[in-house]
Amino acid sequence: xxxxxxxxxxxxxxxxxxxxxxxxxxxxxxxxxxxxxxxxxxxxxxxxxxxxxxxxxxxxxxxxxxxxxxxxxxxxxxxxxxxxxxxxxxxxxxxxxxxxxxxxxxxxxxxxxxxxxxxxxxxxxxxxxxxxxxxxxxxxxxxxxxxxxxxxxxxxx
Length: 157
Hints:
This protein is mainly α. It has helices spanning about 5-10, 10-25, 50-55, 65-70, 80-95, 100-105, 115-125, 135-145; strands at about 30, 45. It folds into 2 domains: about 5-55, no CATH class; about 65-155. The two termini are about 15 Å apart.
């Protein structure tokens, strides 16, 4: 897996904070300026021998099976921002393949309404292509970890 895949698992804001701290500690040097039209393209030179050799954990690869396991660690709160972000992260990562999984997960809640689910899902389909800052699978990972999920059972998948 490339670094670009690893970086996709953290938010841009978290990456900026991490890089800022590393620059302040003289651990890295930013080579090229961040440009508005290509703000995700930049080079980093690592100055610290500790950082060069530091073991970096294997990034979490989220298959649909892993996502289903993650969902089992989360309470369903229909209509909440968290519920919608879970749906968005699943849709943005898996597309239409996530609809049935998200519906079944949502049905665990007493307040589940098929109409509400379909309305929310269709909203995601309509707006996802134009969303400037889409919700990524990192959101699902964060919520699952808050619920006690670990990657240990899926490291070899």
